[in-house]
User: Which sequence fits this backbone?
């Protein structure tokens, strides 16, 4: 494994993995600086024309996310986007969160999975309307994009909803890149995962507003360095509130719910 | 994991950017900026792009990815640095109030076209 990494670095030290190993004229160059690509010079002399574009690749998603945000604001709907790797306990946390807040607030849930409606079935016990999005119909996507949320939200009467919870697809990579028009992003990490996950998936921990460290009821049975996990979260996002909770015993839920309500009413 | 969707977006934006007077143009190169922190694996993106570009004006196009470093600025002491690790704590004053100046890019900067008719 180490050898493969070494080889890749040596022979393909650029992120494009296309150019074979070559030396650079300056140190700064290794940060993705200037290159002379001789292979295309001949054609450039012929009739190649460069057309400037400067557009975000995810422009379309960002535009729809902006429209969603406007719509939710107009309708007075507060939206949270809950993300994590598979199996960290998103659904269990949301079931318990709903049991705390559903009596006081009108909630609705959009839950994303590649397949099955199992999570929707678990969440519908709360009485809140639930829409299951299966992304295999969208090509097995690994995240919920803004247009999917727009379509899913059509199933609710938004005038009747105070809080819309989106349970994203279990994945710490792609969902971080896709804005859907939410007010808050929450990342869940559980103590059965590695303490270094925040450093492995920094974008996710950087873009989120709060972290929930779940399954702390299991700590007595694990060699988990909880302090290290929290420190790693704070290295990536030093001002992020971290709530240590157990969806099973509801330990720590009071502070998490209190914080959420403050954000919602603030 | 969403590189195919991104490759398709790149192709769509590129085709839409071909000027009307160059209708038969073939796109030879797409210049892309990808930030270090963007959730994109360039190797997968190249692979998906090759497949998605088939039977389009980009079938012979090269995807040229420029990697943009993660640049951070401390809003307390104004020091700027290029981070090689995803650590958002000021290296000078240990302050936690920092902003990302670059590193999240996923932008098409230009396309290079050859007009077959010219």
Assistant:
């Amino acid at each position: 494994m180490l050898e493969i990494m070494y080889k890749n670095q040596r022979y393909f030290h650029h992120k494009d993995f296309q150019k074979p190993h070559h030396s650079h004229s300056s140190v700064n160059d290794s940060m993705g600086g200037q290159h002379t690509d001789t292979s295309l010079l001949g054609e450039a002399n012929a009739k190649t024309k460069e057309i400037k574009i400067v557009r975000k690749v995810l422009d379309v998603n960002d535009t729809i996310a902006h429209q969603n945000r406007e719509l939710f604001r107009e309708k007075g709907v507060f939206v949270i986007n809950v993300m994590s790797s598979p199996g960290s306990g998103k659904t269990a946390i949301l079931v318990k969160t709903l049991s705390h807040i559903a009596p006081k607030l009108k909630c609705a849930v959009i839950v994303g999975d590649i397949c099955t409606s199992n999570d929707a079935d678990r969440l519908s016990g709360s009485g809140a309307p639930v829409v299951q999005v299966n992304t295999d119909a969208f090509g097995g996507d690994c995240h919920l994009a803004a247009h999917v949320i727009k379509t899913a939200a059509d199933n609710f009467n938004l005038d009747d909803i105070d809080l819309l919870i989106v349970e994203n697809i279990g994945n710490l990579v792609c969902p971080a890149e896709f804005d859907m028009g939410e007010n808050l992003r929450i990342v869940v990490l559980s103590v059965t995962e590695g303490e270094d996950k925040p450093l492995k998936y920094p974008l996710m921990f950087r873009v989120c507003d709060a972290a929930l460290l779940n399954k702390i009821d299991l700590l007595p049975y694990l060699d988990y360095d909880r302090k290290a996990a929290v420190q790693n979260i704070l290295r990536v996002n030093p001002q992020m509130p971290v709530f240590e909770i157990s969806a099973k015993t509801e330990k720590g839920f009071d502070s998490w719910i209190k914080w959420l309500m403050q954000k919602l009413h603030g | 994991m969403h590189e195919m969707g991104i490759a398709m977006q790149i192709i769509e934006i590129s085709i839409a950017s071909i000027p009307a007077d160059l209708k038969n143009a073939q796109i030879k190169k797409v210049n892309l900026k990808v930030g270090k922190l963007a959730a994109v694996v360039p190797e997968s993106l190249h692979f998906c792009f090759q497949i998605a570009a088939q039977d389009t004006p980009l079938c012979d196009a090269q995807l040229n990815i420029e990697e943009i470093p993660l640049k951070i600025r401390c809003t307390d002491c104004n020091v700027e640095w290029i981070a090689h690790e995803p650590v958002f704590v000021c290296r000078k004053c240990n302050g936690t109030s920092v902003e990302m100046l670059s590193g999240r890019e996923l932008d098409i900067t230009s396309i290079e076209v050859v007009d077959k008719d010219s």
In short: Chain B has two helices and six strands. The first strand of chain B starts at residue 25 and ends at 35.
